[in-house]
Amino acid sequence: MSGSSGSSSSSGPLTGIRVVELASENAAFAGKLLADLGADVVLVEPPGGHLCRTYEPFVNDVPHPERSLWWWHYHTSKRGVVIDLESIEGRAMFASLAGGADVILEGEPPDRLASLGIDHQDVREVSPHLVWVSVTPFGRLSVRRNEVVTDLTLLAGAGPVYHCGYDDHSLPPVRGGGNQGLQIASIWAANAALVALVERDRSGLGQHVDVSMHAAANVTTEGGTYEYLVAQTVLERQTGRHASDQPTTPAQHQAADGRYVYIGFTVGAVAQLRAILDWLDELGIRDEHPEAFWLEVGIERGGLHFSELGQDVEATAAFGSIRRALELIVARLPAREFFLGAAERGLSTGIVASIDEVLVDPHFVEREFAVTILDTETRERVTYPGAPFQMKASPWRIRHRAPLLGEHDAEVLGPLR
Q1: To which H or E segment does residue 183 belong?
Q2: Of 276, 132, 141, 304, whose CA–CA distance to 215 is shortest?
Q3: 382 bridge partner residues
Q4: Are strands 131-136 and 18-22 parallel, antiparallel or unpaired?
Q5: Residue 43: phi, psi to the nearest 5?
């Protein structure tokens, strides 16, 4: 992708792309994704700082606009400036900054920028190359565009909350943690911005991308929306597994040490069936599983295929035997021993772990999920969650901490004055 400008300190697949982001909850994660991939993201805050700087928790529980961990997480690798959009001078400064950018990323109330004369129609009239991405609760043109939302109401109204929770429906649904509603919208916004930049490379023209946070969350209900629209069925929440119109087999099981593991997968390869039988023998508990012979049947058949489940009597019985064999093994072993033993045998399982455990897990350590960077203000090394992916040809990295209020005014805005 070609870019009009960028920070000389930037490196990554988006080097050379400049993004001007108006600070907001809605688009913060989109800006982080682009910044950590190398884009020069200039974060614009109002005088006194954006409200998100007051979001807890704070470093050492000391409230301060420069100590919000929310702010630290969502604004890594960005540069920060202060512009008063309510002033004539500030609006002129923003228009000048936007004119030299490739992408504008904003989550402002739908009518605010238009009332100030700096909306996408105004700026793109003189900068037709500009990709403008708006992230609002229901989209700029929706009749609901001025409704106020939170991450919780987004997830509840769009459907994901209804699909999350327990088999016992006397218990209320469970909201996914970690600002998932906001982050889902930001992922769609970042992807849309990249697609629009690719199109600009072809046509030379930018465009306005209108992201509905509600719609983004709704299409992230897996098959929930489509099942309702096409088959007129409602998928019900289930403990630790996909929502379904019919109850499915429980997937989370308690191990010998009281912890829980996930075995909601279906295996069927000959090598896997043999591994399960051998594991039963190693533990001396094959006799406790009277249906173990069905595993031998599966081996004699040359393996099992998921498409046979519910269609072929022998295959269905064998799949049931696999599940009960693993449940028997789980009950005999500590969770981590079972998890590692399954991995050694080519069986995909999961373990329910705390965040602290994940950060020191050998697998996550090996893939460098936790990222430690030097905070130039405190001179302390701070650990951040890293990327959920690894791409050798498109390296991702946190380049520096979140900006202090107005930290880059001189270097970014100075040349524009």
Answers
A1: helix 180-203
A2: 141
A3: 373
A4: unpaired
A5: -90, 120
Inter-residue contact 226 to 163 (CB < 8 Å): no
DSSP states along 259-309: -EEE-------HHHHHHHHHHHHHHT-GGG-GGGHHHHHHHHTT---GGGT
Residue type, 72: W
Distances (CA, A) of 198 to 206, 207, 250, 329, 413: 10, 11, 44, 51, 28
**Angle ∠(195,157,210) on CA atoms, nearest 5:** 25
- List, in order, residues 6 or more apart from 309 with CB less than 8 Å away: 266, 315, 316, 319
Best CA proximity match to 42, nearest among 416, 295, 409, 317: 409
**Which residues are CB-contacts of 343 (< 8 A; sequence separation ≥ 6)?**
349
Strands 103-106 and 252-254: unpaired
* Confidence (pTM): 0.90
Q: Using alpha carbons, select from 43, 53, 49, 48 the residue that is nearest to residue 23.
A: 43
pLDDT value of residue 176: 85
Q: How far is CA 145 from CA 76, 191, 201, 368, in A?
A: 30, 22, 31, 41
Q: Which residue positions in the chain have pLDDT lower than 70? A: 1-10, 265-266
Identify the CA nearest to 238 among candidates 142, 288, 173: 173
Dist CA 40 CA 348 (whole Å): 40
Q: State how far the Cα of 193 lies from the Cα of 133, in Å rounded to an integer.
A: 7
CB contact at 8 A, 105 and 27: yes
Gap between the Cα atoms of 223 and 397, Å rounded: 33
- The Cα 122–Cα 21 span in angstroms is 17
Question: CA-based diameter of the chain, in Å?
Answer: 82
What is the Cα–Cα distance from 41 to 72, expressed in whole angstroms? 15
In order, the DSSP letters of 192-220 are HHHHHHHHHHHHS---EEEEEHHHHHHTT
Q: How far apart are CA 87 and CA 116, in angstroms?
A: 9
Torsion (CA) 244, 247, 249, 255 in degrees, nearest 10: 90
User: What end-to-end distance do the CA atoms of the chain give, in Å?
Assistant: 29
Return the pLDDT at 41.
98
Residue 264 has a pLDDT of: 75
Provide CB contacts within 8 A for 298, sequence distance 6+.
268, 270, 273, 304, 315, 318, 321, 322
For residue 124, the model assigns a pLDDT of 93
